[in-house]
């Protein structure tokens, strides 16, 4: 199963990925996101990895963070290096509508590890966690692609649409897009979307 490949892959590269994560320059987008959050917001991070740098910064700013990741090793690292968050092993593909009630959802470099045919419903599930005005901060794919590839020397699988389709899916899920850009930092290309729940 693809999810087993992804879990094993991120378990294998967990320590290396934590070191390399800083090459992806999402700081300016995180600052935009954080500036819009009310004080002591409850933020759900889907595919949180080791929680660095995203969750550690949000916690430092006084927000309450719940992180979910499919990789047991990533969650182990998050509990060690990102104190103050609530981190748990879980497969975000199994989330149910209304399962959480939070002020914001963040999911960086993770949604494209779900089959792209599920992205529309997944975004609607995320929307169900938010009340009107709740924030969404995600990365999506930069082109149409589905298949195996290498990530830091391990086998990985991704599935995503091009930006125009991603944008349409986010809008149809009930969001107004505030920021929609293509980030090319760290030698990678990802669509960055910051949006607010209608």
Just name the CATH architecture.
3-Layer(aba) Sandwich
Structural class estimated from helices and strands? alpha/beta
Succession of helices and strands: HHEHEHEEHEEEHEE
Please provide the count of β strands.
9
CATH fold-type name: Rossmann fold
Tell me roughly what share of residues is in helical segments: 25-40%
Range of strand content: 25-35%
Unreliable runs? none
In short:
Helix content is 33%, strand content 32%. It has 198 residues and is of the alpha/beta class.
Give the topology.
Elements lengths: L1 H19 L6 H10 L5 E5 L7 H7 L3 E6 L2 H10 L4 E4 L12 E6 L11 H10 L1 E11 L4 E7 L2 E7 L2 H10 L2 E9 L6 E8 L1
Parallel strand pairs: 1-2, 1-4, 2-3, 4-5
Antiparallel strand pairs: 5-9, 6-7, 8-9
Task: Write structural notes for this entry.
This protein has 198 residues and is α/β, with parallel strands linked by helices. The chain has a single domain, classed as Vaccinia Virus protein VP39 (Rossmann fold, 3-Layer(aba) Sandwich), CATH 3.40.50.150. Helix content is 33%, strand content 32%. α1 packs parallel to α4.
